[in-house]
Amino acid sequence: MNYQLFKIVNSFAGRMDWFDDVMEIFAQDIVWLLLALLVTLWIIGTKEDQRSVFYACLSAGIALLLASLLISPEVNQARPFVSHTVHQLIPHSADPSFPSDHSTLAFSLAFSVLFINRKWGLAAFGLACLTGVARVYVGVHYPGDIIGAGALSFIICVSVFLSRSWLQPLPDFFIRINERLIAVLPGKRKG
């Protein structure tokens, strides 16, 4: 079923050059938009926003480490372009595909934001879903790779979210460092 769903989505690739270009951007670059959102929240947000950014980064880091060091080598799922003839629109190494690293990052950031801010979180979740669909469309992942990334990200984000009361000294430490750095920047007015 995983391969059949892959074939359906990937069969649209290569038909319209402009749409392929858009999907290539979604597949590779939406994670940068999500990271820019977090940087913006850190810079202009409240302390609670900064804590959310910390938890999002922590969740993403844990999920990516689990995915790359434990899950991916154990499952060892070959990428679609290794096992089948596909419409591959972007270059990619032939490393194991489960779970998708891009989708793990995107979903980890999205779920973390969603738990704190519904509006921004839903937008981030939509971007994470676009990333996942695009990774299938461009021929580098199966749908199961994306679903696995979403499930892993959700479990890690819930765990971090539920642990935030005893984790709070960690983001507060980094927030204090940030405040001290900002205070010594040239041009900073003293009030």
Can you walk me through this structure?
The protein has one domain (2-10, 31-86, 95-167). The chain has helices at residues 2-10, 17-44, 47-75, 80-83, 101-116, 118-137, 143-162, 164-167, 169-183. The model has no long low-confidence stretch (mean pLDDT 90). It has 191 residues and is mostly helical. It has nine helices and no strands. The termini are far apart.
Task: Assess the beta-strand content as a share of residues.
Answer: under 5%
Please, how many helices?
9
Helix content: over 70%
Largest sheet: none
Shape: elongated
Radius of gyration over alpha carbons?
19 Å
Mean pLDDT: 90
Number of DSSP strand runs: 0
Element-by-element helix/strand order? HHHHHHHHH
Class from secondary-structure proportions = mainly alpha
Poorly predicted tracts of residues? none
Give the oligomeric state of the chains in this entry, treating copies of one chain as homo and distinct chains as hetero: single chain
Amino-to-carboxy terminus distance: 63 Å
How many distinct folded domains?
1
What is the strand and helix layout of this fold?
Elements: H1 2-10, H2 17-44, H3 47-75, H4 80-83, H5 101-116, H6 118-137, H7 143-162, H8 164-167, H9 169-183
Helix pairs in contact: 2-3, 2-5, 2-6, 3-5, 3-7, 3-9, 5-6, 5-7
Write a concise synopsis of the structure shown:
The protein has helices at 2-10, 17-44, 47-75, 80-83, 101-116, 118-137, 143-162, 164-167, 169-183.
Key traits:
191 residues, 9 helices, 76% helix, 0% strand, elongated
